[in-house]
Design a protein that fits this description.
The protein is mainly α. It has one domain. It is built from 3 helices and no strands. Helix 1 runs antiparallel to helix 2, helix 1 packs parallel to helix 3 and helix 2 packs across helix 3. The chain is elongated, with a radius of gyration of 11 Å.
């Protein structure tokens, strides 16, 4: 697998997470940055935890 496709996929996931976070009235930028660091774990956290 090409390493460039890995980075493209990770970046795409971060963008998707930012949109998902905004749809739940959360900061898209913060979740984008968290997603760059934690990837699929951040996706799991966005989906599972409700906003208080």
């Amino acid at each position: 697998m090409d390493s460039n496709s890995y980075f493209v996929g990770w970046g795409t996931l971060a963008l998707i997470n930012a949109g998902l976070a905004q749809s739940k009235n959360r900061s898209g930028l913060n979740w984008f940055l968290l997603s760059l660091l934690f990837g699929p774990i951040a996706t799991f956290l966005i989906v599972v935890f409700e906003k208080k």
